[in-house]
Amino acid sequence: MAMISKLMVERFRGINNLEVDNLNRVNLFVGDNNCGKTSVMEALQLFRTTGLLGNIYTIARQRESAFWANSNSLYENFICMFPHNDDGNLGISVSGVCNGKEISYSVTGEEKQILVDPKELDRYFVRENMGWLVAEPELDEFEGVISYKYGQLIKDEKIKLNRLSRVSGTHSSKTDELKIIYVAPFEHLKGSVISQIIKNDVYKEICLKALQLFDEDIEDMMIFKSDISNRPVEYLKHRRLGNMPLSTFGDGIKKVLVLSNAIAKAAGGILLIDEIETAIHKKYYDDIFRFIVKACKAFDVQVFVTTHSLEAIDGLLGTQDYAQQATEDDICVVTLKREGNNTYSRVLEGREVAQNREAFGFEVRL
């Protein structure tokens, strides 16, 4: 199993000098809004081992995936990943320890203005204020180097990016040595979930077991062609209702499908779940969270979770039987707090949080 035991975010987005030690199999990141929880999830994704350019471009645009119609340029999204420091220097630096080996990722470089050949401008347009305008001949451009180290693996890749740059043609297809799967809060709304699952019998069996926590009458999942458009439509086979389109079920069913599939895909690696409570009603927390923790153990997955919900925190802590477990504890709770330009962390064992929550109503998010 890939296991990150220590994480240090020296410079990334709004995070400066964050250090988190003693990470566990299940790691809950909690805290106030805008404290850096999602930024930590993105920083962890930088540790993917191949396609360095393609990976950072994907992360840069990740927050806009649900708002593509109003998206910024790739360049604007990329530049926003750098902390805004008074010294004017641009740099990203994230490091840690994974499987006992040091791992690090950095981007260094500078932003400057360049002149573009007017003949080239006709090929490009820039979206601005809901209109389409021809780009100016003078543009900001970032030029630098991405450096990556993981044990004996060392990679450096040059990067040059401006407002006219596109993702197409960027290499990102090789298999990662360090497998990291990310689930966004609204991943379940993207569709095409079943089409990914039914390609693998093991994935399918896991997902069906998860769905049956919601409704024990769900028997199978399949894809049929639409009678109207001939496009593929996802269905669930229900014991009482027959074959029902997935779209007719609630978001909770879709979210559990996405999570189950992600656990299987992350086998032997790392799973990142941003805002785990999204679309899941709290009455299902005990069953769903127990399933997630049990499945992650079965597939040797280390999981990082962010949440705003105290009920979700209690539900995840409830997956451990601390009355019976003398020393065993799979959970680490990390509370993030931002003060000025620095982000601080408080790291507690799940057992300690559970005991203080029960005895004193401990508010772990502060």
In short:
The chain is α+β, with helices and mostly antiparallel strands and 366 residues long. 26% of the residues lie in helices and 34% in strands. A hairpin with a 2-residue loop joins β4 (90-98) and β5.
What topology emerges from the helices and strands here?
Elements (H helix, E strand, L loop, with lengths): L3 E9 L2 E7 L4 E6 L5 H9 L6 H10 L12 H6 L10 E9 L2 E15 L2 H4 L3 E4 L2 E4 L3 E13 L2 E10 L17 E4 L10 H4 L3 H14 L3 E8 L6 E7 L3 E4 L5 H15 L4 E4 L11 H14 L3 E5 L3 H8 L13 E9 L2 E8 H11 L6
Parallel strand pairs: 3-15, 3-16, 10-14, 14-15
Antiparallel strand pairs: 1-2, 1-4, 4-5, 5-8, 6-7, 8-9, 11-12, 12-13, 16-17
Helix pairs in contact: 6-7, 7-8, 8-9
Structural write-up:
- The chain has 366 residues and is of the alpha+beta class.
- Helices cover 26% and strands 34% of the residues.
- A six-stranded antiparallel sheet has the order 2-1-4-5-8-9. It has a six-stranded mixed sheet with strand order 10-14-15-3-16-17, with helices on both faces.
- Strand 14, helix 8 and strand 15 form a beta-alpha-beta unit.
- The radius of gyration is 22 Å and the shape is globular.
- About 2% of the residues have low confidence.
